[in-house]
Design goal:
It contains four helices and three strands; from the N terminus they run H-E-E-E-H-H-H. The chain is α+β, with helices and mostly antiparallel strands and about 100 residues long. Strand 1 and strand 2 form a beta hairpin. It is elongated, with a radius of gyration of 15 Å.
Length: about 100
């Protein structure tokens, strides 16, 4: 598998809301199949974007280190990791890596 395929693998998403103070809720999101891939925040959309950034960065780091990320299910055929990386304003390095694998 190449980087594009690894980034197209769907992972289970766990979500938990924790009351930190009366009326104050913290959202915890995680991809438990990717160890350490967790994000916390107060706004759902921002927390999900942070989690997605972490997922992509973790997978790219593993691939660059010559390690294979967990692949619990087949990559989604319609996924576009390059669009996702650009939408999340990830580093140009990640976009360049994905552009190379698109050819």
């Amino acid at each position: 598998m190449d980087l594009r395929e690894f980034l197209s693998v769907p992972y289970l998403l766990e979500a938990e809301a924790v009351e930190t103070e009366p009326g104050q809720w913290l959202l915890r999101l995680a991809y438990p199949e990717l160890p350490g891939c967790i994000a916390e925040g107060f706004v759902v959309e921002d927390t999900l974007k942070d989690l997605e950034r972490r997922r992509i960065e973790q997978i790219v780091s593993l691939v660059e280190a010559g390690q294979e990320p967990p692949v619990p299910r087949k990559p989604l055929a319609g996924a576009d990791p390059l669009w996702t990386a650009r939408d999340l304003d990830l580093s140009p390095r990640i976009a360049a890596l994905l552009e190379r694998t698109a050819k």
